[in-house]
Recover the amino acids of this structure.
């Protein structure tokens, strides 16, 4: 397992999602990103 790499990518995409969406639907987009990049 490349757990560290997965966590790093997940954090990167999570931060990018926050920048794009701001506070608009933050929680939903976060869950969507997590599901997307965990699969």
């Amino acid at each position: 397992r490349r757990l560290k790499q997965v966590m790093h990518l997940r954090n990167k995409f999570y931060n990018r999602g926050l920048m794009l969406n701001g506070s608009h639907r933050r929680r939903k987009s976060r869950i969507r990103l997590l599901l997307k990049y965990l699969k």
Observations:
- The chain has one domain: 3-38.
- The CA atoms of residues 6 and 38 lie 8 Å apart.
- The first helix runs from residue 3 to 21.
